[in-house]
User: Which sequence fits this backbone?
């Protein structure tokens, strides 16, 4: 009897792990819309694109994310949207975010002085699994460099 239970547990474990095989979904930041702001917090909606690079559809049942600028966590967000992303396809997800104004203020001076910054979004997207939810970690980071004023005058074009 113990062998049967052990084999059953082993088979279920293989089945649940097998559903997560293949490349992880990739995310990218598509849009930012700021909404309410108070002294301590700014709320908004980030739109992220989720790319499914698997040969089977991906059924998303929400996600949770955290946002960093220059390595400092400045906010977090969640989405309860259900999505079905076709095989080798993509879809967008709206994420309600809460940003800490105090954390952003501590980064403001270095951003102005360095003229560049790096943002990182990391989190988990959730899929319906055999025994409830299964989470898959996702992450994107990008470095931006602000254009430097070289004092050079650009010619004007007359059309």
Assistant:
């Amino acid at each position: 009897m113990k062998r049967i239970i052990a084999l059953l547990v082993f088979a279920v474990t293989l089945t649940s792990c097998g559903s997560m095989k293949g490349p992880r979904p990739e995310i990218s930041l598509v849009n930012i819309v700021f909404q309410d702001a108070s002294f301590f917090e700014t709320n908004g909606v980030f739109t992220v694109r989720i790319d499914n690079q698997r040969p089977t559809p991906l059924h998303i049942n929400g996600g949770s994310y955290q946002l960093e600028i220059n390595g400092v966590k400045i906010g977090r967000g969640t989405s309860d949207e259900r999505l079905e992303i076709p095989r080798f396809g993509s879809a967008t997800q709206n994420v309600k975010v809460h940003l800490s104004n105090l954390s952003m203020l501590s980064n403001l001076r270095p951003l102005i002085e360095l003229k560049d910054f790096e943002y990182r979004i990391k989190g988990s997207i959730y899929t319906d699994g055999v025994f409830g939810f299964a989470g898959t970690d996702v992450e994107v980071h990008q470095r931006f460099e602000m254009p430097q004023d070289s004092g050079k005058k650009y010619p004007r074009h007359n059309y």
Remarks:
- The CA atoms of residues 62 and 80 lie 4 Å apart.
- The first helix runs from residue 2 to 18.
- Residues 11-19 have pLDDT under 50 and may be disordered.
